[in-house]
Amino acid sequence: MLNIFLTVVLPIFIVAGSGAVLQRIRPGSLGLLGPAALYIFGPALVLNGLLETQLPLDVSLRIVAAAAATMLAMVVVAWVVARLLRLDRTTESGFMLAGAFGNSGNMGIPLAFLAFGDDGLSVAIIVFVAHTSINWPVGIYIAARGRARGWGPLLQSLRAPTLYAVPIALVIRGFDWTLPTTLDRPIGMLADAAIPAMLLVLGYQLAQGIEFRQPGSMTTVLATRLIAGALVGAGVTTLLGLEGVVRNTVVLIAAMPAAVFVSILAAEYRTVPRFVASTVIIGTFASLVTLTVVINLLQRWD
Description:
Number of strands: 0
Radius of gyration: 18 Å
Number of helices: 12
Helix content: over 70%
Largest sheet: none
CATH architecture: Up-down Bundle
Structural class: mainly alpha
Number of domains: 1
Order of helices and strands: HHHHHHHHHHHH
Shape: globular
Distance between the termini: 22 Å
């Protein structure tokens, strides 16, 4: 428990906290940092991850299928719960962002390694790449629909560069090409900057305070993300016949708290950003308990 806090959660808060401190010392607008994370750092992270990850094709495809099915199922679950709460359209979109998308990257990957070793790490990387390639366009659509109707949200989602990073990476790998150093190094540098940039944006938002004006919705979205996420992950992996470390890792990542990138989308599209950012930070603290329970249950499942 203490090791997870010191090696996974605390580093996240140190980086985010530096953004919050900077905002307090030098107050100002977010500027280009949010759009840069959305349109530059994020796509580079997906492209770099797909080009660097190496697992057998059949295993990779099953992991990708499980990760995609789990994420899309959570979008539906979050939408149904939000409708039952009778939220307005903008708050409904914020609820869906916070309830559907888990932190499979800067929290899921190291935690999978701590829980299941090198095998868990390999699976977690594939899950992360699958999630990231889908999360941005789907997340943009959900965020944009909070204040727009008709074809507007769909057109916004089609502008997400991460949507096109996947086929580009697959073509490069399919033809067994090697990127020239002139391109490979900048992509790697931008990918390395993605997670710190996202955390700084989160820190900027947190400097404005945690919002408790909707405790009922907040509690429900936390339960949706942390508890329903684990149950959906278990159901999907059972249906797909996954076992052992592959199943356990997919379920563990499905139980992660809300991803940092949803706070970026909420800020960019003005979709109750303080509610979403508050869910990310509170959910991360709460997951210290829920993830400990999930890991214990997964280890007993075998």
